[in-house]
Structure formats: structure tokens, C-alpha cells
Amino acid sequence: MAHLLCTALWLALCGTPAWAHKVMIFAWVEGDTVYTQSKFSGGKRAKHSSVVVYDEEGNRLLEGKTDKQGEFSFKVPKKTGLKIVLKASMGHMAEWKISAEEITAVAPVSESRSTREVGTEVAAEQAAPAIDTKTSKELTAPTGVGLSRQEVKALIDESLDRKLAPILNMLADSLDRGPRVSEVLGGIGYIFGLVGVALYFSNRRRKG
Amino acid sequence: MHISEGVLSPSVLMAGAALTTAGVAVGLKGLDHEKIPSIGILSAAFFVASLVHVPIGPSSVHLILNGLIGLILGWKAFPAILVGLALQALLFQFGGITSLGVNTLNMALPAVICYNLFGWGVRIGTRQLVFTVTAFACGFCAVLISGVLVGFSLYLTGEAFLAAAKLVVAAHFPVMLIEGGLTAACALFLRRVKPELLEGEYAAKTSSWP
């Protein structure tokens, strides 16, 4: 019992909200890195929970643990749709899917961005077929100024990621919303309705 | 307490659903129409109780109330908790539809067990002290057994039983105390205000395990 109490105390002190109702994971892509944020309902971060990443076929790609902020990030292992599964303690689980279109850069390719060789550019193109042909044609124009298409793209991606970061954080926060009054009242209404139906049938049975 | 969707293996889910179906059948068998409103009211109380967060330290816990439900309803706790959990899963996304069977079993079975363990004490005839202590024990143990059952469900899917159960039980320790107190307070209040609600079930009950 003393041991149990110690565990309870430890749980209370480190604030693991293991008794929350559900967990959520939110993931987004910035360049070649995927960032994830995990939370329990009520806004508590899911600390030290394991995160497993699968590809579209369900093969396990990598695994990690969230830090104290409930965050976990990893380099995109390959160009495919990703399924990120969060496993918190006590049977809580959540997942988030990232489609292949969202992933524009794969970790090793992004390193070759700086080189100006045509060969690597082609390789990068092949690795990232998600780029719309129309936009890439428009982007070919400034090559005369001295910047390669890839460099312009990298610059745009970078600044977009920076500009969008607060919005993504806001989105992650807004995903966590507790039950609303309308839902609570609706649930109570359902129960009273069921009581009414049950009484109706039991009365009919008594009369019949 | 609410196990999410996709955590347990299909066989555990199936077994939970089958046992819950059996429990609900027992609960609904020979249902007296006078009992229906009290099932509804306790179901609504269960549904809302999970929203009552009790801040303890830096975190918060929520009520389950299965001890109180078991005390008043006996086997009819199964249908009451099933309805409450189904609505929680649909409206709040607590737990899930596929894990509904297991979750209902984990919360309703302790209610029935505690009803049979401590029900004898919670009568109008018993002394106030015995009455209070048994009511407290009923609320306390219902949550405790629920925690052990959740740990057991996770163990059947591959987690280490002792670690899982210990974590669940330790996390719910404050809830157990609060539930025990709340159940005792409710039972004492009912004894004064509406004693037939407590007595009706015991008058009908001679052999409780069918």
C-alpha cells in the first residue's frame, strides 16, 4: 500500500494526466522534418509517451518518445504517406495521418539542395514529384538572376514554414476542445428519451 | 478508465462485448417498469459525472460513480452504464464504439460485485456507522476493481499486468477516496429522504447471483 501511495504521489507530482479521457496527436511537415505535438484532453501535454510512425502499407518506420512538452520530431524517412500513432499509458491511443502530397522533401535530398549540379536537381525532382509542373515552370524564370529553381523553392518553403508556424500551433490548440454544453444537454436528452421509450413499451406490455 | 479504440486486440473486444451483452440481458430480465426512471436518472448521472473534474495537485481526476450506481441498481447497472458510455463515446469521443463492450464490463461488473459485497450493510435497518462504512467501501472498491479490470484488459493485449494495473490503480487512488465519500454521502441522504430507493432493491433481492 505504501508503494502504491508513493506511485500515486509520484504521478501527482510529475503531473502525468494519465487519467484523462483521451489523447490527441497533431503532426505537420516543415521542410524535411515532421513535427508532432501530443496532448491529453484538457490541454495537458502527453510526456514521455511513445510515438510510432508507419508508412501507408503499415510497415513500422521509426519510433520515439515525446519530450516534456509532448513534442516529438523526426526527419522524413521516405516519400510516402505517414501514419503517426501515439500510445499513451493506460490504453490511450491516437493517430494522425500525413498524406504523401504534404511531404515535399525527404531528408537526404534536402542536403543536396545547396549543390548546383544539374544531376542532383533532377534527382530531387524525381524524389519530389508532388511539385506542380505549372509552378515549377514559373519558377524557372528567375534562374537567369543567379538562383536555381531548387534554391528559390527552398527559400519559399523556408519562409512559408516560418510564417505558418504560429497558425499551425493555433490549429493544434484548437483541436483540443472539451465537450460543449450542447453535447452534454443532448446526451441527457437522449437518456430521458430512452427512458420514455422504455416506459412506453413496458406500459404497453402491462396492458396487453 | 476509458480504453481507446484500436488499443485492445479483437479477441479481447469480442469477449468484452459478449460478457457485456450477457450482463445487460441479466439486468433487463424481468425489468419492473417502476425501476426504469431510476435507471435513466443514474445513467444520466454517470454520463455527466465524467465531466466533473476534481482538481488534485497539478492535475485533475474525474468521477465514475459506478459504486453508487451498483448500490442502487444492482445488475441493472449494466444497461445504465452501457447507455452512459455509448453517449460519452459518441458525443465526447471518450473511449470508442468498438471498445464499448470492454469499457462497460470494466465499469459495470465492479458495480455488481460491490453491490453483492456491501449491499447487506446499506439498508435502513443497519446502524448509521455500519451503513456509512459499507457505503464508503462500496464506492471505494468499485473504482479499485475497475482499475484492476482495466489493467487486466491491457494485460490480455500484451502489456505487463502488474505495471499496467499498478499505474491505473495508483492514478485512481484519489478518485477512490472521493467516490467512497460521495457514495456514503448519497446513501445517507437517500436513507433520510427517499429510503424506498435503497430498500426496494434489497426487498426484491434474495439470491442476487442468477
Unreliably modeled segments of chain B:
205-210
Annotated CATH architecture of chain A: Sandwich
CATH architecture of chain B: Orthogonal Bundle
The rounded distance between the terminal residues' Cα atoms of chain A is: 57 Å
The rounded Rg of chain B comes to: 16 Å
Mean pLDDT figure of chain A: 70
Number of strands of chain B: 2
Please report the total strand number of chain A as a whole number. 7
CATH class designation of chain B:
Mainly Alpha
Number of domains of chain B: 1
The helix-and-strand class of chain A reads: alpha+beta
CATH fold-type name of chain A: Immunoglobulin-like
Looking at this structure, what is the CATH superfamily of chain A?
Immunoglobulins
Oligomer: heterodimer
- The CATH class name of chain A reads Mainly Beta
Order of helices and strands of chain B: HHEEHHHHHHH
Give the helices and strands, then pairings.
The complex is a heterodimer of chains A (208) and B (210).
Chain A: H1 2-14, E1 23-30, E2 33-40, E3 50-55, E4 60-65, E5 71-75, E6 82-88, E7 92-98, H2 107-111, H3 118-127, H4 133-140, H5 149-175, H6 181-207
Antiparallel strand pairs in A: 1-2, 2-5, 3-4, 3-6, 6-7
Chain B: H1 10-28, H2 36-49, E1 53-56, E2 59-62, H3 66-73, H4 77-92, H5 100-118, H6 128-156, H7 161-171, H8 173-193, H9 195-204
Antiparallel strand pairs in B: 1-2
